[in-house]
Amino acid sequence: MDSMALIRQAVQILDKKKAEGVRVIDVSQLTDFTEYFIIAGGTSSTHVRSLADELEEGLKNAGFEPRGVEGRSAGWILLDYYSVIIHVFTPSERDYYDLERLWKDGKYIDVPVGEET
Fold first, then answer.
1. How far lies 33's CA from each of 8, 30, 80, in Å?
2. 28-32 long-range contacts, CB within 8 A, separation 24+
3. What distance in Å separates the CA atoms of residue 81 and residue 6, rounded to the nearest whole number?
4. Cα 100 to Cα 39: distance, rounded to the nearest angstrom
5. pLDDT category, 74, cuts 50, 70, 90?
6. Rounded to two decimals, what is the model's pTM?
7. H or E element that contains 105
């Protein structure tokens, strides 16, 4: 799997659907269960579900199948693509779990948006 291609595609989808505070963190030096986290926010639980649905459909159309999806009825939906795990949060859940703080030793990756990949 081309992790960076998946990341670029996911960030494009999140940007197009107005996700808030999208962050990509390289955690490959910190854990052995994945290489990257994408963390994004929705404005409400409905927006979070919509973002997760769009990600799953758009990434599937690009040839990426998730290992699993968790939390469809919660304020935090996790989409596991093996080397890339995508977290989509409501504002309150994102503040509560604060993954950016927990994984602060990871390397933030800048992924430009605008051009379709």
1. 20, 9, 10
2. 29/106, 29/107, 30/103, 30/105, 30/106
3. 9
4. 8
5. confident
6. 0.93
7. none
